[in-house]
Every structure is written in C-alpha cells, then in structure tokens.
Amino acid sequence: MEANGYVAALDIGTSEIKLVVGELLGGTLNILAEGCAPSAGVKRGAVVDIDKTVQAIKQAVEHAETSLGDQIQSVYVAIEGEHIQIAPCHGIASVKREDQEITDEDVMEVINSAQVMRLPDEMSVIDVIPSSFTVDQQTGVVDPRGMLGYRLEMHGKMVTGSKTILHSIRRSIERAGLRLEGFILGNLALGMSAASVDEIDLGIGLVDVGHEKTTVSVFYRGDLVYSYILPVGGDHMTRDLVYKLNCKYQDAKVAKEEYGLALEEMADETEGFSYTNINGEVAFEPQSEISYVLEARIEEMFTLMLNKVQKVGVPTLNGGYLLCGGAAALPGIQELATRIMGQKTRLYQPSSIGVRHPKYATAVGVLKYVLMSDHHVSKSQLEKPEVRYESLNNKQEATDTHVGENEYETDQESKKGFSRFMEKLFGV
C-alpha cells in the first residue's frame, strides 16, 4: 500500500497487462486510475521474456500514473496458472501476552507455523489463506484478535507455485521499478469480489475466459472448492478464423472483435467483413459465417467445462455462472453459456468508470480483495470442503478433496471434444 493510502493491483495477462489503482472511501471502492499495455512476453500466466514483460509493465504504469498524477511505487499481483497448487494446512501457536489476549502477532505466528511442511524443491509458498481459527476449545472463530486464550490453531489453505515462474514475475516487477507487495490468488480474489455472499454460499461457477486459457472456479458454502484450467481461450477463437478466412492473424482479430457474435442466429445477413486474404485477393465474409465459427469453439469450451463441474460433487450451483475476462466481451456469449450450462449466467464487469470491461475483472478483484479484507484473516466459515487445483496438462492432484470423486479428464475425452468441434466447424 502506498503512503497516501491507495493500492495498485497488477494483472499480467498473455495478451494485455492491466494495472488498476484504487482506494476505499466509506466502504466503497473508488478507482483512481487504470493502465493497460499489450503483452508480448507472457505465455499462459508465465513470463517467457523478461525484457518484453518489463516494457509492458512500464507502459501500463506510465498510463496509470498520467491519470493518477502521482508515482506508483508498489503493486499487488494476481497469480494463477497451471503451476499453482492449493493444499490444506494447519498451524498451532501459544498466545504470548501475559494477559492472554490474542494480537496480530499471534495470528501471524500461527499462520507462519502452518507453512512448516515439506515441499518439492521447485515449489515455493505464495500465501496461506485461513478458513477458521480455534481458541482453546472454541472452534469456528473467524477473527481471534482481541479474544482471550492460551492456544491458537488455524485451519486453512496453503497456496504454492513454481519458484521459476514466481522469480521471473518478481524480477520483471522489480526491473520495472516497482516493489512487490505480494501475490494474490486471482480466481479467489475475483470470486470474493464479483459474487455476492449468498451466491458463494449457495454455489456459483466463475468462468474467466482469457487469451490462451479459461479458468472455471466453483465456490460453495462460502469457499473456493474447485478450480480447473482449460487451455482454450480467445486466441483459439481468432486462430479458427485465420483458417476459415485464410487471412492474417490481425485481420482475423478485427473480424472477431468488430463482427463476431457467440450465436450465429444473432447475425445480420447484410453485415460482413471485407479483407485481403493471404493470397492477396479481396474477399468478403458474412457475419453469420464468422459467428458460426466462434459459436462452434465457444460451445466446445463450455461443454468441456460443464462436464468437469458436474463431477465436482456440488449438488447444484444455485447462483448460476458468472462470466468475465477479455474474451467474455463477445456479444451473445451470455446467452450461449446459459443454453449450454442449463443455468442462469451473467456477465460480470467492474462498475467503476474507466474499468467497465470484463478484462479488468481480475485486477479490480485483487484490488477489492486487498482493500476490503484483512489479507491475513479470511472471512470464511468452518468445515468447508477442501479445494483441489487441476490443470488439463498437469494431471497431478494438489490435495484430497471432500467434494466428489477425484476424476480427471482423459486424453481421449479431450480428443472427443476436439473432434466434435472440428466436425461442426469443417464438416469432417
């Protein structure tokens, strides 16, 4: 946090780097500035070119500083990706004060004690997220500070990540002239800020459609219980159009952003995209054909996600689904998702002026999470299901779960989903 009270949150994405600066006024989030820059050095949440990433971060910071009228010195960073693992943890500590009143120091000590566990050499602890505390024999304590006791226990989750990936992100931020305040689990912060308390309790699915990946996170009984990464995103939609239109990537991107719809039935037969194909010939593609290609890819993506969510073990997501992310801005995607998921689906975009676009959802979520909650004392309730973090490309289970069975999508299932997509798109 800056000396003047505002906080900066950074979302390092594959296509863009987003920076949002804000403060808390009377319990309400006030966005002061935002910055955005094209990203060329990031691949699916991992920095692959530090120099290019540093330049992109600097551009985003300069943009935000122009609006802010002040220098940004430190940032919180949203972290997610296939390297992230979440496991249950437990810490125990004795209360130190003579009068036995529990203080911030005691809470920090019990959190630190939970980190004393064996980890693979290539993994590093990112954060510990408390779910509940126990003071002597009193269980289910949300915030133990100010209470009297001799023994303090904490049950929560430990977030770990690849040392190599975390080091590259940290080095990029430092070389950009910023101080890293901490990593925040992106989908957790986004869910806690975008969904209501009732939705998180009754069950809601958060779908973050990014450039190269889509993350679905399931919240139930007030907690994150499941997270899954599908390596398909907006970039795949664009590349589908590259092959269909036989054009350059940039032309396909323009076709998607200006004429693309997630539902072919919404297309206007009189609208279309004029372009020069790869052979130098002038061509025209109707909006209906562009939308047909996009609908096929999005339908495949949502169908695969639905199959995974149905195996989690949560009875019913009464809160429905929440869409966010840059690629979720495609018109008609909300209606298509509702049709496939069979439940209410709504599009989330921050309400503050300047960031009213789904692509800013994660950065605003981190900002809100930091400002509106004590970062070290969660408001979660007792006896929640443990979370597991799964990636399509990484079949290793992060931890056991009390929600459903430990089932993972096989390569054969992936091929079937892809085959259905190819059959619809190309008739093969």
Rounded mean pLDDT is 84
Q: How many strands in all?
A: 19
Which series of helices and strands comes N to C?
A: EEEEEHEEHEEEHEHHEEEHHEEHEHEHEH
Biggest β-sheet: count, sense, barrel?
A: 6 strands, mixed
Provide the low-confidence segments as ranges.
375-422, 424-428
Class by alpha and beta content: alpha/beta
Structural Rg: 23 Å
What's the end-to-end separation, in Å? 55 Å
The proportion of residues forming helix, as a percent range, comes to 25-40%
How do the strands line up in the largest sheet?
A: 18-17-12-13-14-19
How much β-strand is present in the residues?
A: 25-35%
Tally of alpha and pi helices? 11
Overall spatial form: globular
Write the layout of secondary structure elements.
Elements lengths: L6 E6 L3 E10 L2 E11 L3 E2 L2 E2 L2 H19 L5 E6 L5 E10 L9 H10 L9 E13 L2 E4 L9 E12 H13 L3 E7 H9 L2 H6 L1 E6 L4 E7 L2 E8 L3 H12 L3 H11 L12 E5 L5 E5 H23 L11 E4 L8 H9 L3 E3 L13 H12 L15 E4 L19 H16 L2
Parallel strand pairs: 1-6, 6-11, 12-17, 14-19, 17-18
Antiparallel strand pairs: 1-2, 2-3, 4-5, 7-10, 8-9, 8-10, 12-13, 13-14, 15-16
Helix pairs in contact: 1-3, 4-10, 6-7, 6-8, 8-9, 8-11
